[in-house]
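Good morning C.,

I know you're traveling, so I'll keep this short. The sequence:
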Amino acid sequence: MARSSSDQTPRQRVLDALVALIQRGRLVILAVVIGAIVFVLVYGIWSQLATNRAETAAGFAESAEKSYESWQNETDPSKKSDLEKTIVAQTNQIFTTYRGSYAEERALFIRGSLAYADKDWKQAAGFFTRIADRFPTSYLAPVSLSDAAAAEEEQGNLAGAIADEKRITTSSDISAEVPEALFMIGRLYERQNDATNAKTYYNDLIDQYPSSGWTKLARDRIIALAVRS
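The tokens, ready to paste straight into the viewer:
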């Protein structure tokens, strides 16, 4: 006949409590192990799906780039028109399905380049600035802003071109792009007949990047402005 808890010795009660604690601990450990296994499985599945998605997106982007290269080299107007339609369809699919991916960034650049080549300046500027807006830390951001500025200038929007170039000087971590942007801002101000601001940016270029190839051009422009005045 089993003893009641009141009949047990202190040592037996301690042993019983320890056994009960171990049993409860095993349940906790088992729950933790099961949770860890589930997490690893879920993370593994998610990681594989993300990898597959990225690879698929990259494949779409590569196809669009090949189509764009073919479009550049094509001389037959009918075939060139068909290729352009293919590029638009390919990039639109990327915009819809792979938003926020590197593939979208590449697709935006392709569409901007296509529009620029077609001299659709407004559309080109729109695609290029979208890259900088959506992917501000990308290496393509300053390049795209420079292209957007060129498109804005082509359509006579000098203020828009200046704004695009200024974004390069204030947000770009790629210092190699900044000297050119400073020079372009000065040149654009010259086109607006604003010699004061033009000289300000030329001098900023000279002070900040004395060894840049753009600095000599800035000095030449300052001399030209002084002679003109």
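Safe travels,
E.
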